[in-house]
Each structure stands twice: as C-alpha cells, then as structure tokens.
Amino acid sequence: MRLRSTALATTAALTVLAFSASGPAAAEEADGGRPGDVVSSAPSAFHPLPGQPTGTRAWKVHYRSTTADGAPNVVSGTVIVPQDGRTGPRPLITYAVGTVGLGDSCAPSANLPNGTAMEATLIQQYTQRGWAVVVTDYEGLGTPGVHTYTVGPSAGHAMLDAARAAIRLPGTGLNADTPVGIVGYSQGGQASSWAAELQGSYAPELKVKGTATGGVPADLLKVAAFNDGSYGSGLIFMAAAGQDAAFPELKLDSYLNPAGRALVAGMKENCVAVDAVAGSFKRISDLTTRDPLAQPDWRARLNQSRLGRTAPAAPVLQYHALGDELIPYAVGRQLRSEWCARGADVQFDTIVLGEHVSGVITHSLAVGNWLADRFAGRATRPDC
After folding, report:
1. pTM for the full model?
2. 276 in Cβ contact with 250 (< 8 Å)
3. Beta 207-214 vs 346-351: how paired, if at all?
4. Which H or E run contains 338?
5. What does the alpha-carbon distance between residue 272 and residue 106 come to, in Å, rounded to a whole number?
6. Which residues, 6 or more positions from 337, have their beta carbon under 8 angstroms from its beta carbon?
7. pLDDT range class, residue 24, cuts 50, 70, 90
8. Is the pLDDT of residue 383 over 80?
9. Radius of gyration of the chain (CA)
10. 174: Cβ–Cβ under 8 A, 6 or more apart, which residues?
11. Angstrom distance (rounded) from CA 261 to CA 254
12. Taking the CA of residue 140 as centre, how many other CA atoms within 13 Å lie in the half-sphere pointing to its CB?
C-alpha cells in the first residue's frame, strides 16, 4: 500500500546523530548454530510514544551474528509484526537506528516498549503499511561488552542476521520467501549500506528487494576530519571507543590524556544526548597525547569500515541533505559514484532544504513509497 498523505508527525526529540566480510560459515558454532538463529525470545511491546497503541505484536530476541573479523557473537533486537488479520505474505523491514549512544540503556529494545525510542514514529510508518519490522540493537548495545559503534561490517552482519532471526522466529508469519527491505539513516545509514554490500555474499538467501540508506558516513576518516573541533566532535570519541571495542589491539586508552579517559568512560555509560554535548567543540589534540587517527593501525581499521568497494546486489535509494552539518554531502556523493562505477542500481536523492537530523524525517514518506514500489515489483529509476 502506498501512502500519499502527509507523513506522521515525528517526535520532536528525535536526534539521529552519527558518524555516524566474512562468510556465514565463519560464524557457525560448534553446536551447529548459524548466523540468524534465535538464541532466545520473550514478549515485548512497540509504542511510538508512551502508552500509544499500535496494533502490533513484538518480541525481544537474542540472535547469532558475526563480528567484523568473522567471529561468532550474539546480538539483541526487536521483532514487530502488525496484528491486522493479514494471512498472506507481508514484507519485512530490517531497520537500523541512528546514533543512540554507547550505554546499554540506549538500546532500541530497551526503549521501544516504553515509547521512548527516538525513531519509533518512523518505524510506525512501516507497520501502518502492514509490514513487519526488525530493529537490531547492534553488537554490544544491550548485550555484554562495549557497543562497536561505527564498525561497519559488524553492523551490516547484525542487520542481515536480524532479518534471518525475524523470519525464523515462530509466530511471526514470516518465511523464507518473505520480501525484505533494508533501511537506515546516519549510523543506520552506515549499517544499512554495509548490509546492502554484504548481502550477496553473506546472506544470499534473503529476498532483499531494495535498500534505502541516508546520511551515510561512508568514509570515517573524512567524517572525523570534518567534525574535529565542531559541535559534532563528541561523535569522534564515541567512534574511537566503538572501534577500540571491536579491535582491542588499537589500545585507545594509551592515546588519551586524563581528560580524554574521563570523557570516554562517561560516554560508555550514557546516551547520545549527554555524550554529544559532553564531547562537543573539542579537538582530538585536546584529549590525546598523540593522534590515534594518524597511526597506520588505526587508519587501517577505520578503512575497513569504508564503503563503496562492492556493488549492492539489490537496488538502492540513497539520500543526503545538501546542508548536512555532520556527514559531508561530498562523502555521500562519493559513495554514490563508487557504487555506480561498479554497476549498482542507485537512485540518489539530494535533500535541498534541511540538515542532518531533519533529513531522515522529511524524506521518510519518499523512502516508504520507494520500498513499496520495490515490493510491488515496479521498475527502478537509477540515475547513475
């Protein structure tokens, strides 16, 4: 069903800040577990605002996935299915949120039941179309360990395995033939773009019809340079903590001065509203004894998350605000150019008015309609 009316009002507090392969066999456990297998599930709930009914059924799940370097891990998430009487097949959206923070209390699965998740109103637009949605918490967010924030391959695996878990979870009405859409903006744009690049090799059995990805931090080194000393500079230190969580050999702590250690320690316990303010208008040199981003090992790991080397197997809608003050527009355009050069089916939408946060809101109706066209089998309009 295509929605032609005005998109639902989005929670004013929405703050979507961000900088935000391994084959599936690499993650198989000795007990035969596969990526996407459900480890546990429990009833949950989905409320865009506190107490707001949605006519859905929800589960919190823990499912098997894969780290950036191919090791098995377990990630949590939320599966949401409309209770609309539909008995036939319905599409599934695997959804990645923008930056929420590093503390476990920030995880979507901890906030969707209470109506306090920042992107819940956007997610509701999909359930109102009759589509199921699965929202990953990402690696280390809501599960043991520090969230591997901005580690692209890990996030891509988590999104694809969330879709597998939703399909395998009993009671959802989903099955192996379920059409899948991949959606994310900002940090979620990095995750969804990585899922799109990895899907053909990591989860080829998924019936992915398209990926809608926006505000994508496709090149972390360029994004860090852009934000150093600006009001988005706190995200640099969140990203450094996330990379260090995934790759402990980077030894972030050895580069930080006392003020830097205190800032990063606090970030690991809090959510984005606190972290972004605490870290704003600081330069890397203010909080370090030497710049880790100048070191070969750090640069190599950050480049491991660089997008654009593989063409997504399914069509892509990529969108970016011309005035994005956190993720440079040129970074988004470069990703589009690299995907196009590799033969991808890409439609690129420039959001002429607005900035980073507003982009995900104002373009949400266009995203939903583009996905509806993909699920209906309509022709794409690539503009490479």
Report:
1. 0.91
2. no
3. unpaired
4. helix 329-341
5. 8
6. none
7. very low
8. yes
9. 19
10. 81, 90, 92, 132, 166, 167
11. 9
12. 22
